[in-house]
Amino acid sequence: MSVQEYLDKHMLSRKIEDAVNAAVRAKTHDPVLFISNHLKKAVSSVITKVKARQILDSRGIPTVEVDLFTNKGMFRASAPSGDPTGMYEAVELRDGDKGLYLGNSVNRAVKNVNEKISEALVGMDPTLQSQIDQAMIDLDKTEKKGELGANAILAVSIAACKAGAAEKEVPLYKHIADLSGKTNLTLPVPAFTVISGGKHAGNNLAIQEITILPIGASRFEEALQMGSETYHHLKAVITEKYGAHGCNVGEDGGFAPNISSVKEGLDLVKEAISRTGYNERIKIAIDVAATDFCIGTKYDLDFKSPNKSGQNFKSGEHMIDMYKELCTEYPIVSIEDPFDKEDWEHVKHFSSLGLCQVVGDDLLMSNPKRIERAINESTCNALLLKINQIGTVTEAIEVVKLAKDANWGVVASHRCGETEDSFIADLSVGLATGQIKAGAPCRGERLAKYNQLLHIEEELGDHAVYAGDDWRQ
Fold first, then answer.
1. Is 361 assigned a ligand-binding role in the annotation?
2. Which positions are catalytic residues (predicted)?
3. What is the pLDDT of residues 219-240, one digit of tens each?
4. Is 252 a catalytic residue?
5. Exposure of 262 in the CB half-sphere (CA atoms within 13 A)
6. Which class does domain 47-169 fall in?
7. Which of 252, 300, 337, 421 is an active site residue?
């Protein structure tokens, strides 16, 4: 084929002429760069390659990272990881070979991306998120993504979402808003972990964490400042009372002093808030994670204290009394998983009291069937969204719609096994969740999310809206 025939076949002469004319009209100082960019925009982007690898999460446990390529560039994403909590969430595929990372390696999931998922997605338009996600769901053929692995599917789904935003030349949060049909972009109120307990820390505190919400901030930037200052005042309070060793941190970056009662922890946090002078502008939330210490129909608040275990059992009714007292004595606005994941009746009873937001985490596991049941039975009134429990961006958008239509609150959440990927920050803005829980204002993998929210607020400029008092949206 001659050069002229090649030019004619691909209509290159017309395309190049259009690009040159555009460069002239723009009076560009760098016509070569301008023409190059102009020609790139003239070509619809498609997925050309998907490559995965095994990396380590914040706990030093393997997870899946994906590079998705289009003719616009390379887009990287990684799957967060948590402690599996039951039969209702999507399945992380791990190898189970005890000789490799104690059985936690993810080579099979990586292989599934490189060999099966890549082949299925090459040639697809990255802006068509739902079609990409559905193609992977169809390829897997299982209800909980156990064949390919939710860790493999999610990493690809997030990478595709980033590629879609690049193709449309819009910020990631705007692309997510478009996918969901949202028009209101909102910076969420951060729930900063300040004290860690439960399975996330080595102290005797039964509940999993105490968090603070700077609801009274006027901007996200101010909320981050308020969270950081309170965190450092808390460090001083703990040091004064327990010594420097009390300032060791848990998996999410919260301090883990050797306290055994939730009131001890709340008193420390209350004192720290008092020292900042923010007082009424900062509220408190607790994540009980009650499933971890439910034995039969009782709750063992001493389950981490071997010498005391068995002496502090509480019935569901006694737990409700305890929560009532805590909500009266402290500025608590949200309680997560106050009861076992199958203890629907006590959650429902407690929610009906209207004392605070009641968040379902282990209760719901981001599972649409569980969410629908909770909505129909008025069990709780907020969803903790963990995207790896459901496995694709499209399904995450759908469950948020379910929750929002029921007038629930939504909390976009990190996992205990996190990476530097800041995707949930953009997700929380694009879906206007109103709340985000990404750990303490400490540790890089947690701050990646908070710092990305700073970038988004700066980018939105005068159009930036901080949820503040409308944190439940």
1. yes
2. 252 (proton donor), 386 (proton acceptor)
3. 999 999 999 999 999 999 999 9
4. yes
5. 26
6. alpha beta
7. 252
